[in-house]
């Protein structure tokens, strides 16, 4: 099988570069990075020389590689392997660390290899979603998932202690969020916009919202869009494409899939 590698800069997360590669013959010579890498081997096995030791990275493992660490990498046998990598710029990493930890000074993260197939699977699916995201697509789901998974990653490595967020949104904050979503439902709504309405950082808002509502902001907004779609389908003669656009679904197949998942039938059968 011919080796291949693809890179993509994330539209939703400035400072993040995603890569996915399938290697059989290619060998990473000893090298280092200036950014921070979170890497997953999703198929096959990579053999890596790091700190004078030999590591075998297998599906279910997550490697955190800090800047400046010298290492190499090659297929562990005759078979190829698939490697997915999140490459975080120092500015992105520092901003995320401060947001999640609640500390102005974010300590430098070291290297680690975690064995957690569940978290690795979530990270792999997030990687796919970020690579597939088209300009203008709804970013809230991947932004929320991004913060949530990094929170889990930091907890597992014990390199950063995430801030404990307790309580709920105030009645005024909750009203602002509802009113904003009602007015802007046909538009792209971001996590930053909703958090700013409450004068909160995204991570803090994400936690308080879920503790207030019992759903993530993305799940709540999607449900609001679907409920509004039901009303339009019941009381207007708009076509399905118009309804989908008026409630913020720019992809008809996404609208159909979400509607069927919520109500058990397609919009045309409602």
In terms of quaternary structure, what is this? single chain
- Stretches where pLDDT is under 50 for at least 5 consecutive residues are none
Shape: globular
CATH class descriptor name of the largest domain: Mainly Beta
Distance between the first and last residues' Cα: 48 Å
CATH topology of the largest domain: Jelly Rolls
In short:
The protein is an alpha+beta fold. The protein has helices at residues 90-101, 117-132, 140-157, 171-183, 191-197, 202-213, 217-235, 240-246, 252-263; strands at residues 4-9, 16-23, 28-31, 36-43, 46-50, 53-57, 61-65, 71-75, 81-88, 112-115. This is Transcriptional regulator, AraC family.
Plain-language structure description:
With 270 residues, this protein is an alpha+beta fold. It folds into 3 domains: 4-157, Jelly Rolls, CATH 2.60.120.280; 164-214; 222-270, Arc Repressor Mutant, subunit A (Orthogonal Bundle). The chain contains 9 helices and 10 strands. The strands form 2 sheets. Strands 1-2-9-4-7-10 form a 6-stranded antiparallel β-sheet. A 4-stranded antiparallel β-sheet has the order 3-8-5-6, with no helix packed on it. Helix 2 (117-132) packs antiparallel against helix 3. The protein is globular and about 70 Å long.
């Amino acid at each position: 099988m011919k080796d291949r590698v693809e890179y993509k800069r994330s539209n939703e997360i400035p400072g993040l570069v995603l890569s996915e590669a399938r290697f059989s013959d290619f060998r990473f010579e000893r090298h280092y990075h200036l950014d921070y890498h979170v890497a997953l081997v999703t198929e096959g096995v990579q053999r890596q020389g790091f700190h004078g030791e030999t590591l075998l990275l297998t599906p279910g493992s997550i490697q955190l590689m800090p800047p400046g660490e010298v290492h190499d990498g090659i297929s562990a046998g005759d078979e190829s392997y698939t490697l997915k990598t999140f490459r975080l710029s120092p500015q992105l990493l520092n901003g995320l660390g401060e947001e999640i930890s609640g500390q102005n000074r974010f300590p430098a993260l070291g290297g680690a290899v975690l064995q957690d197939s569940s978290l690795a699977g979530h990270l792999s699916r997030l990687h796919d979603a970020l690579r597939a995201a088209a300009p203008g697509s709804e970013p809230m789901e991947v932004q929320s998932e991004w913060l949530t998974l990094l929170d889990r990653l930091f907890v597992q490595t014990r390199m950063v202690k995430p801030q404990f967020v307790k309580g709920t949104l105030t009645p005024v904050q909750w009203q602002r969020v509802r009113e904003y979503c009602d007015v802007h439902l046909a538009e792209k709504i971001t996590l930053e916009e909703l958090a700013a309405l409450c004068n909160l950082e995204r991570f803090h808002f994400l936690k308080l919202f879920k503790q207030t509502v019992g759903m993530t902001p993305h799940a709540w907004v999607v449900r609001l869009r679907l409920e509004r779609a039901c009303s339009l389908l019941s009381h207007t003669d708009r076509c399905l494409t118009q309804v989908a656009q008026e409630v913020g679904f720019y992809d008809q197949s996404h609208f159909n899939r979400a509607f069927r998942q919520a109500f058990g039938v397609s919009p045309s059968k409602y």
